[in-house]
Write a structure and sequence with these properties.
mainly beta; 0% helix; OB fold (Dihydrolipoamide Acetyltransferase, E2P); 18% strand; 5 strands
Length: 184
């Protein structure tokens, strides 16, 4: 006797349902309440921080999870922040990176900032360069070359210059002034 068997069908995973919504409450930790009452999490690929009033694209998955996958619009678009919820590091890795602004660029950290070009050069070009350091400035280099129209240096306590050979030259005058001058 032959029995009839139906061919085995693999069940396809449920496709997410896509729809638009508006964020009405930020719940923290990358979670949001949407205008239709659903809660949604910011997806890992949505790097634009989501805020109240944002028009978003939501993916409702078969397991019931909802994810904000894109920020479609913002009522008052003045500022945008990039972040990945739950990640402690955001790295941009590419063979070349160009960061450009027609206005102001600010690089801020509560801890250390490291700029490294171990196989190349670091170039700073500016009309003015200001450095404010509350501790120490330590420079280690093989050669130090500087050119200036005027070079003014004021030290409150001790100025010490030392080298195997030290030269002080001038085209006209050399003035050494002090309460006591010791030579030799």
């Amino acid at each position: 006797m032959h029995t009839y068997r139906q061919p085995h069908k693999t069940q396809s995973p449920a496709q997410p349902a896509w729809n638009e919504s508006t964020v009405v409450v930020e719940l923290g930790e990358g979670r949001f309440l949407l205008e239709d009452g659903r809660m949604a999490m910011q997806s890992l690929s949505c790097l634009v921080e989501t805020h109240i009033g944002d028009r978003v694209l939501v993916a409702a998955c078969g397991n019931g999870d909802c994810y904000v996958v894109h920020v479609l619009g913002r009522p008052q678009l003045e500022e945008v922040s990039l972040s990945v919820p739950g990640a402690s590091l955001l790295r941009i890795q590419q063979s070349m990176l160009d960061l450009a602004s027609t206005g102001h660029i600010a690089l801020r950290s509560l801890a250390d900032v490291e700029i490294s070009a171990s196989g190349g050069a670091i170039r700073l070009t500016a009309q003015d360069l200001f450095q404010n350091v509350s501790g120490s400035v330590v420079e280690n280099m093989r050669h130090y070359v500087a050119q200036a129209e005027h070079y003014l240096l004021e030290v409150k306590q001790l100025l010490r210059q030392h080298g195997q050979q030290v030269m002080v030259t001038a085209d006209s005058d050399v003035k050494v002034d002090g309460e006591r001058i010791s030579m030799g």
